[in-house]
Design goal:
With 495 residues, the chain is of the alpha/beta class. It is built from 14 helices and 19 strands. The structure holds zinc ion.
Length: 495
């Protein structure tokens, strides 16, 4: 048996001014390089490879694009990437027939002229291979899902965890379902329940609270309902600002009746809990006031700025929280990290031991604060910013912050990187020469994913929701295409 794999992993925040260009997608992982890079990594594609190995199925790597969440994909980049996937799969099929195709699509990708980039890739693959080819999709929990995508797929399964610690397992599930389809000749039914509801990522953690309860219900249904093969609660991604934005439940079952019933049951439970999804809207100042009330004698208190989460399209150079940390000047403070390649280069040029004056951050747009003026910042370390992620989410993968410096400003270490990425573990501090366990206050830009590593280690976690394009208050956004009658912007009926 031979199964091709490929896809695109891009979450679009339509309020970002950073486009995904052809040059970025030219760096997609292709063929054996995809296997060499992602084999053994705790993500979806790592799961595809692992399942293939376990079942003795040949995995044919084609083209997989990974982007740091940003703005729209340009039309050119989208079409070239789509065609590369289709052509690589078709060439493999000509060489020796494929039995199935496993795609990894994020589900919140938006391109110029293609408001559902993920459905467009699936459409092109389906069109080339025809209705009989089993095609399965492993997706992100923040996917915005609508009928066209579901109609073209034979299975759709998303991660249940936020942080997405089960990407690897989700890849395995999809791959194994495809193998079953090939062996038995059957195709599962897919159920889709769309709710008139938008969840801000800051509200969606599944380690506790209402999203945890919905997640557990999905697991229970999978265990209890005999004909059910998978159930996913997709939280959606409202900042994509497309008509598809919504919370959905997607089920995969042996028959349509089961798929529809379970999707409706889970959706009903989640909908009835919708008012429980909320997060405190702490300013940076309030967040520090709260953090200082917590016990940091054994482990640092972590303050996370969700509003400028690069993992959700934030520029990563917002200054609200770093400004407050520098102002407070508490011993043992570290900010990990802010994106500012100019300042990183300036510090590296000055060299270790130098003192520099600089204007830090807030250069990408006008939505994330003003540049922070630093005078006499001491250049403590300079690094290439490369490390191996140790988190259960994506662990084993290579992270590259680019040229990274640690600036000492009073009691505060401010880490400055040159690539945008979301901090998942303590790697940011490792490359800066800092030990996380010796710190007292840590600040970072992430909504939930940092918890995959930090939850068990932090002395406490305090969320901060400064102004920004990933902030939790959906009422501040001027949505053009997201349905603003949906809860919590409106108060619609659903049953
Ligand atoms: Zn996600």
């Amino acid at each position: 048996m031979r199964i091709a794999i490929g896809g695109l992993h891009h979450e679009t925040n339509s309020f970002s001014n950073i486009p995904i260009t052809k040059a970025i997608l030219d760096r997609a992982l292709v063929g054996e390089n995809l296997r060499a890079t992602m084999g053994g990594v705790r993500n979806y594609v790592g799961g595809f490879f692992a399942a293939g190995e376990e079942l003795g199925v040949e995995v044919v790597p084609t083209v997989m694009g990974y982007c740091t969440p940003s703005g729209h994909i340009t039309k050119e980049a989208m079409e070239i990437h789509r065609d590369r996937i289709v052509e690589a799969m078709w060439a493999a099929h000509q060489e020796k027939p494929l039995d199935a195709i496993a795609l990894n699509l994020h589900g919140a990708g938006v391109a110029d002229d293609y408001h559902d980039a993920d459905a467009e890739i699936l459409r092109a693959v389906r069109e080339r291979f025809g209705a009989d080819m089993p095609i399965g999709i492993a997706m992100d929990l923040h996917a915005n899902i609508d009928d066209p995508l579901v109609a073209m797929a034979n299975t759709v399964v998303g991660v249940k965890g936020y942080p997405h610690v089960d990407m690897f397992e989700t890849g395995i599930i999809v791959f194994k379902q495809l193998v079953e389809m090939v062996k038995t000749g059957t195709r599962p039914a897919i159920g889709l329940a769309r709710l008139p509801w938008l969840i801000a990522p800051a509200e969606g953690v599944t380690t506790s609270g209402p999203a945890h309860d919905v997640q557990q219900l999905c697991y229970r249904k999978e265990e209890e309902v005999e004909k059910l093969m998978a159930a996913t609660f997709f939280q959606g991604f409202p900042y994509a600002d497309v008509a598809e934005c919504a919370v959905t439940v997607v089920t995969v079952a042996e028959d349509q009746e089961t798929a529809d019933k379970v999707a409706h049951d889970i959706a009903t439970y989640a909908w009835n809990r919708r008012r429980d999804f909320a997060v405190p809207a702490n300013s940076a100042e309030k967040a520090f006031d709260l953090a200082m009330q917590l016990d940091n004698s054994k482990a640092p208190i972590v303050i996370n700025e969700s509003s400028d989460n690069t993992g959700g399209g934030g520029p990563g150079d917002g200054t609200h929280l770093v400004r407050e940390m520098v102002k407070r000047n508490l011993p043992g403070s570290a900010y990990g990290y802010i994106y500012d390649p100019e300042v990183a280069a300036q510090a590296a040029k000055a060299g270790i031991g130098a003192k520099i004056d600089c204007m830090l951050g807030a250069k990408m747009d006008k939505l994330h604060g003003e540049p922070l003026e630093l005078k006499g910042a001491y250049v403590k370390t300079i690094s290439d910013g490369v490390f191996i992620n140790q988190s259960p989410m994506g662990g084993g993968g290579r992270t590259n912050l680019g040229l990274t410096v640690c600036l000492e400003v009073g009691n505060v270490c401010v880490i400055v990187g040159s690539n945008r990425t979301q901090p998942m573990d303590d790697g940011v501090f490792r490359v800066a020469g800092l030990r996380w366990d010796l710190l007292k206050y840590v600040a970072l830009k992430s909504s939930q994913h940092f918890k995959g590593w930090w939850l068990e280690r932090a002395g406490g976690i305090v969320p901060c929701d400064s102004p920004g394009i990933h902030c939790a208050d959906l009422k501040v956004f001027n949505f053009e295409n997201t349905n603003t009658t949906y809860f919590p912007l409106g108060d619609p009926e659903w049953k």
